[in-house]
């Protein structure tokens, strides 16, 4: 059963607090394991994970750093980056590849080493859609590997990028078939649910709904969640407003070329407007940079 009324019973997993509570804390690592197993279908199920340091520095002191939402490895030493991305970025794919380079470089060994690597998986849960397939509502689950374009075969299977375009997931409770469907439904609808749906009877979802119930939070945790929710709502409002303005400018052009130019201008204004608003809200430059793709210098100049 869904509702739009307030207060919510369960947390919003699109908030930093909500996402890290469910997937980034050792006490709830069974939720992360269950989600990854439903998504990846590895040769052997993940039975345990160890959380790793989420902040990574470059090889030199002045190199840029990467801060992951969730970073862990399984018992086989395979690495997993799991991120919730709330808004599109101009160079989102570049950023994703850049982030994946850290768990690859960290595997380098001193002395003799034959370059054998453990697999690296990047999972992006996206609260936006890619421009190039925005018209295809059925294509929301992207799995990307290095491929030989002549043979149409995977060339290297130890580097995988998975992106889930959440706005495209529209299945109702009655349409849920696979465990993956159920996870997508929960992530998409959790904050609007009044109770645990009958279709989600697996033990893992018992744990999830127990962990996500706001009424069970301590006063301190509730305050932290409410602050995170406010940041999420402010960001959503900024993005929605900027997109609407961009669309209005595009429509006023009256021609396809004008609409394209208007959309591009709107996206650029959206980035700058988002960064300006978040800077005024006192958010850290590293967070603003992750959301907008702007450098610290560009943010500082706003």
From TrEMBL:
Pfam families linked to this entry: PDDEXK_2
InterPro entries (UniProt xref): RpnA
Top-level division of the source organism's lineage: Bacteria
Membrane-spanning parts: none
Region annotation Disordered: where it falls in the sequence: 249-275
Database matches in NCBIfam families: T_den_put_tspse
Entry protein name: Rpn family recombination-promoting nuclease/putative transposase
Organism field: Phocaeicola sartorii
């Amino acid at each position: 059963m869904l509702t739009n009324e307030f207060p919510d019973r369960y947390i919003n997993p699109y908030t930093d607090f909500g996402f890290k509570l469910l997937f980034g804390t050792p006490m709830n690592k069974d939720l992360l394991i269950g989600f990854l197993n439903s998504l990846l279908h590895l040769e052997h199920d993940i039975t345990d994970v160890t959380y790793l340091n989420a902040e990574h520095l470059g090889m030199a002191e002045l190199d840029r750093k990467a801060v992951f939402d969730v970073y862990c490895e399984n018992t086989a030493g395979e690495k997993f980056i799991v991120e919730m991305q709330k808004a599109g970025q101009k160079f989102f794919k570049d950023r994703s590849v850049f982030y994946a380079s850290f768990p690859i470089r960290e595997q380098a060994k001193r002395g003799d080493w034959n370059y054998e690597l453990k697999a690296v998986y990047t999972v992006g849960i996206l609260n936006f859609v890619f421009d190039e397939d925005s018209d295809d509502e059925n294509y929301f689950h992207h799995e990307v590997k290095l491929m030989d374009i002549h043979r149409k075969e995977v060339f290297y299977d130890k580097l995988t990028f998975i992106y889930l375009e959440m706005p495209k997931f529209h299945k109702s409770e009655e349409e849920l078939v696979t465990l993956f469907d159920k996870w997508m439904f929960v992530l998409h609808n959790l904050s609007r649910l009044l109770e645990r749906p009958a279709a989600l009877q697996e033990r893992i979802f018992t744990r999830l709904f127990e962990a996500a119930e706001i009424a069970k939070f301590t006063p301190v945790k509730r305050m932290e969640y409410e602050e995170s929710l406010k940041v999420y709502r402010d960001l959503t409002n900024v993005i929605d407003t900027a997109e609407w303005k961009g669309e209005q400018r595009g429509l006023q052009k009256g021609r396809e070329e004008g609409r394209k130019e208007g959309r591009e201008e709107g996206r650029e204004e959206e980035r700058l407007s988002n960064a300006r608003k978040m800077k005024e809200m006192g958010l850290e430059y590293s967070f603003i940079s992750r959301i907008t793709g702007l450098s610290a210098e560009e943010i500082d100049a706003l």
